[in-house]
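pasting for the record
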Amino acid sequence: MNAISIITAAGLGLRIKEYSFTKYGRYVDKPLVEFKGKSLLEWSVKPLYPLITNGIIEFSDIYIVIRKDQDIEAFKKECAKINKMINIICIDKLSKGPAHTAFEALNKISLRRNI
């Protein structure tokens, strides 16, 4: 089976923007904001662990989708803390929503691997 998991992280994070300014003194992308000691990105990956431990997917089957204008280095660093095999896919611009983001990512992923 060629199962993958796509986690969309390409939104503007407007509802948490003020919180990130208060907590960090600057705007931080929503998935990188920490809550209870873990980034929201880590909280998003955590439910996939049973799929990984049961051999359904591997960390290399996880794709985090961001916009090219987001801080890719910060995302790489955060992904490396979770697992170095997690992939980052950049889309060109803000999409029409999470489903459109996933579709854009799927098009890019399908150029890299058979899915």
